[in-house]
Amino acid sequence: MHHPQTLQIIDFLRHYLDHIIIGILGLMSLIMLWKTLERTWFYARMNLADYADTHQLDIALERGLTPIYTIGANAPYVGLLGTVIGILITFYDIGQQGGQIDIAQIMVGLALALKATALGILVAIPSVIFYNLLTRKATVRRHQWQSAFAPQAE
């Protein structure tokens, strides 16, 4: 016996899962790109003389990096969630066929489910690369400030 709610949920996911996962990953990509461009512009134009101490400097340098890191760390999990749900739907469909298994249909269902993981990885890789580049740039700017403005121990 099948619960009507279960059928509605499976049917909803069958029709909208790709849109939901691609939408979430697309939003994550846009946020990551925006933050990367904003930080790149900020680092290029910042005036180191505006910062009286390293605490103020560090706050300014590190602002906006957390979302880039968070997206890089979590995008694969969003993709994996899409894959797991896609495989769940495929297994549900196999169960509904009552023993009449169409291997081609199963393979197509599994292949389509795996694309969500691939998309998650495609979002994560540039996020991690940009995060690493930006944290390196922040370190360089911090060292430049220390060389120019920190009291020199003699």
TrEMBL record:
It holds the Pfam family MotA_ExbB. The keyword Methyltransferase does not apply. Its main location: membrane. It is found in: Cell membrane; Membrane. GO terms for biological process: protein import; transmembrane transport. The chain crosses the membrane at residues 20-37, 75-94, 106-134. InterPro entries: ExbB/TolQ_transport, MotA_ExbB_proton_chnl, TonB_ExbB_2. Residues 56-146 form the MotA/TolQ/ExbB proton channel domain. GO terms for cellular component: plasma membrane. Keywords: Cell membrane, Membrane, Protein transport, Transmembrane, Transmembrane helix, Transport. The keyword Membrane applies. It is a multi-pass membrane protein. Signal peptide: none annotated. Belongs to the exbB/tolQ family. This is Biopolymer transport protein exbB.
